[in-house]
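## Example record

The block below lists the input lines for one assembly entry, exactly as stored, with component labels intact.
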Amino acid sequence: MNNTAVDTEGAWFEPSRISELRRRLPIPYVDIVPVRTDTDGTISQVGLLLRASGTGRIVRAIVSGRVLVHETLREAIARNVEKDLGPMALPRIPVAPQPFTVAEYFPTPGQSLFTDPRQHAISLAYIVPVDGETAPQEDALDLAWCSVPELLASGMLEEMEGGHDIIVRRALAHGGLI
Amino acid sequence: MNNTAVDTEGAWFEPSRISELRRRLPIPYVDIVPVRTDTDGTISQVGLLLRASGTGRIVRAIVSGRVLVHETLREAIARNVEKDLGPMALPRIPVAPQPFTVAEYFPTPGQSLFTDPRQHAISLAYIVPVDGETAPQEDALDLAWCSVPELLASGMLEEMEGGHDIIVRRALAHGGLI
Amino acid sequence: MNNTAVDTEGAWFEPSRISELRRRLPIPYVDIVPVRTDTDGTISQVGLLLRASGTGRIVRAIVSGRVLVHETLREAIARNVEKDLGPMALPRIPVAPQPFTVAEYFPTPGQSLFTDPRQHAISLAYIVPVDGETAPQEDALDLAWCSVPELLASGMLEEMEGGHDIIVRRALAHGGLI
Amino acid sequence: MNNTAVDTEGAWFEPSRISELRRRLPIPYVDIVPVRTDTDGTISQVGLLLRASGTGRIVRAIVSGRVLVHETLREAIARNVEKDLGPMALPRIPVAPQPFTVAEYFPTPGQSLFTDPRQHAISLAYIVPVDGETAPQEDALDLAWCSVPELLASGMLEEMEGGHDIIVRRALAHGGLI
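Predicted structure tokens for the full assembly:
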């Protein structure tokens, strides 16, 4: 395990600095559920990353990352999609800043449905349709596009950590699919 | 004024039939604010139709129309966009059925902010980014794409009837622009 | 089975009239998930009705009903809550008309997740906290308040028809509980 | 001007510490529009604070404050309402974590509609009906409840800083009033 695997923004600070900040303040995040859509707008596929977790396990994950200081939410969404899906993904950044849900990650399991051992993070969650070519980047081992029935039947949601499966389920509920 | 100008779906019923239905039930509608977006998702332009109103005045309007029986909301959005913007508009139908607002049109002015002399309509309002070529159809005289500052400065919103200007303002507020 | 069990608004029209309207137009509805909340706003309990369905089965149901002509959504929510939970329920009608989801009921199973053999209904769904005393009314056999864990564990959601269980699940997802 | 006027949470850190954090990370906030509602849920009045701004001007403001580390959004809403409206306000904390809008405050005017000379803040905005007794607290000079027509006619919205007037307008738009 290295720092990049844990937090690709970590390089902005010395490791001791970022971990101090994380003890002091909730960290603003964006959680992005990448989807393929039919021409009528219905979610047809969900994109899931396969990556090594902070604890060294292999897990499924959605696109997720910090909002940096002086960065807009739109920039943070675009940057994190590019970081995880590559520069040709052609994401359709949402028209409105209202997230479909907000996930509150706490270091202590049980304080909410979402846990992140590193920090208290407040994450605005968006569904982002992706029209272009995607490829796993950097620390991701794979990127799989799954149809919704396949996703629900496959057990992939159970391979997610920290509550990412709940974000995907809420995205599907918001999209009218479950 | 002819029936087509008043209600392009009127042809589904004899005129006496539809007006009787309108006295009996609220009529489900979709109101669509067509927009052009920047690559970061921000609304850059709003599309406004120029058409003859039911009373013969020339007015600006958004895309608006009934949901037909046995038609899904997604089909109603696509059909009404095509009816008003043409078959090459390439609308991005919303991922989620949750509208950004609901407009309740009543025949009697003052019962709400929205009036429709023909009927009590309950309209689900959506922002729909449009990527393709658009052209005014049928009963529309023109279709203008206006930048947001131009729209707010031009007085065009004051040329809208029944509360369509309020829907546009709520769309811009929802999109984070005003 | 009598008409009241099927549609408590049916009395507004002769039965032949309402069934004709239902073949002609989608019918606007409101679906209401009644909840008790903690002081921090979290949903603590969900209220479920026990009633005879249109087919004579005993089912669990949420509060659901038509929007009448010339009635506002706020009035429709208040009237339907009173119809099912009684006049002392003290519902907190939502501040905003934006529903948390929209359910499209079709007569033919499979066209959407929601079915209603009587009609094509378009239903705006709201979570409504209820602070007062509630009692089953008219055609309801019982009204049960269930804690969220109990609701999820009990199998009660499987006793719902037409997709009401999906509305409850979406309400819990929207409320941040699942 | 003292620190309390600028940031009532400042006391959690030495002043030099919080200003360093503010250069490093966006700060998570909640913006709360306190309202009185009619029994049908419509916003009848909006509560506005009168306070000294960071620059010593007298301004109108909504309830606004940081989310502290290890604090839930629900706790942050309740704490900030109590801080500004007093312990008897009886706020109805929202059932769902989805904010009606997100305001991004930047130190540099023009980067967005919202400015905060102290920091980059990301603020989740909620409408919070208040049923109890309210009184201005600590650093507030006054708390005024204004009817919506009065608010729009009075020029009070022009006495707000940093974009708080835009949050109030978006709240009224979301509530179906403008």
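Confidence is low (pLDDT under 50) at residues 1-11 of chain D. Residues 26-174 of chain D form a domain with the Nucleoside Triphosphate Pyrophosphohydrolase fold (CATH 3.90.79.10).
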